[in-house]
Design a protein that fits this description.
Blueprint: H1 2-16, H2 19-46, H3 59-62, H4 70-86, H5 91-95, H6 99-104, H7 109-143, H8 149-179, H9 183-212, H10 221-239, H11 243-254, H12 270-278, H13 285-316
Helix pairs in contact: 1-7, 2-4, 2-7, 4-7, 4-8, 4-9, 4-11, 7-8, 7-13, 8-9, 8-11, 8-13, 9-10, 11-13
């Protein structure tokens, strides 16, 4: 444990003094504050002179405004924080010939990889907590609404989901840092994975769905509906290969109490439509947690699997002094 704390403290000092990390963090904070300010000013004008509805504070994080929402911003650019923190975690030590010196100290080898990962997760938690607090304070100033207890709990769950999501990309970046000796190669590999999983998984899922269950024009309405549903289900199943989809579905559900399901398309019968029209109450917090629990468990699983692979590969690698 002493060895982990030593590596952890060293990495925290490196992260706080890293100019690239400060630049990307400042950029994301700046964009997030601009989005929240635009949304807050718009809400201030719309709510002037009327009673403020419930859960209006959460709209600061989910409302798109003129650009996109804060949740969408973190889903898109949040992985860059994890990649910046981890793409040179190990190969930087190899290039500087300090890895063999670390191993020669009374420090277990696993303390090196564990300390680096824990330091990265801590930095992610600091950045996300600070960003959420800044936007919350800005929202209180602009909208004039103090969040209730349930809204605070929903924000806390959202914060945990965001930390897990970015931590996955941290683990992936550290894995590439272990696999490749060049920092440029590991950075490009991590960025390529981010682009693939964030932008092209949905496109590939659409191609697979059209090939397996094509939607064709048919006079039979029942057959057309079945084909459309099969196509949509295949696309959704393929989209789950992307951590961005898991994060987006979970955060949009937990931050929007009126959203009963993460699905964007639902087939309902007449009785279900009648029930939905009559009962439009917000979903209680506990039920929202039940809905997002599978997504949270999936994010935890892929994060630990990614770091587990990184841990196993690093423990088996040969470390030379030259």
């Amino acid at each position: 444990m002493h060895g982990i704390f030593t590596i952890y403290r060293k990495e925290m000092e490196d992260h706080f003094s890293s100019m690239r990390f400060l630049i990307i963090t400042a950029l994301i904070v700046m964009i997030g504050v601009i989005i929240a300010s635009m949304v807050g000013i718009g809400m201030q004008e719309e709510l002037r002179g009327i009673a403020k509805p419930n859960f209006v504070f959460l709209l600061l994080f989910t409302s798109t405004g003129k650009l996109f929402s804060f949740v969408q911003l973190i889903g898109l650019l949040g992985p860059l924080i994890g990649i910046i923190l981890g793409f040179d975690a190990i190969n930087r030590e190899r290039t500087g010939r300090t890895l063999s010196k670390l191993v020669a100290q009374p420090i277990y080898r696993d303390a090196i990889i564990n300390g680096k990962f824990l330091a990265g997760v801590t930095m992610i938690a600091i950045v996300m907590s600070s960003l959420v607090l800044i936007i919350a304070g800005l929202g209180i100033r602009l909208v004039g609404v103090v969040p209730g207890a349930e809204e605070l709990w929903r924000l806390l769950i959202y914060l945990i989901l965001s930390i897990l999501y970015i931590s996955f990309w941290l683990g992936a970046a550290i894995l590439f840092s272990v696999l490749f000796r060049s920092t440029a190669t590991s950075a490009l590999a991590a960025l390529a994975l981010w682009i693939l999983l964030s932008f092209f998984v949905g496109l590939g899922g659409g191609f697979i769905a059209d090939a397996v269950a094509p939607v064709t024009q048919t006079p039979n309405i029942a057959e057309a509906q079945d084909a459309f549903l099969r196509n949509a289900e295949i696309q959704r199943a393929a989209s789950f290969l992307s951590p961005a989809t898991l994060y987006g579905d979970a955060t949009s559900t937990i931050l929007d109490p009126l959203r009963k399901t993460p699905r964007s398309f639902i087939m309902m019968g007449p009785l279900e439509r009648l029930s939905l029209s009559r009962f439009q109450n917000p979903l209680p917090l506990l039920q929202s947690v039940v809905v997002v629990a599978p997504f949270m468990i999936s994010l935890i699983a892929i994060t630990f699997v990614c770091f587990g692979i990184c841990y196993a590969v690093f423990m088996r690698q040969e470390i030379r002094s030259t």
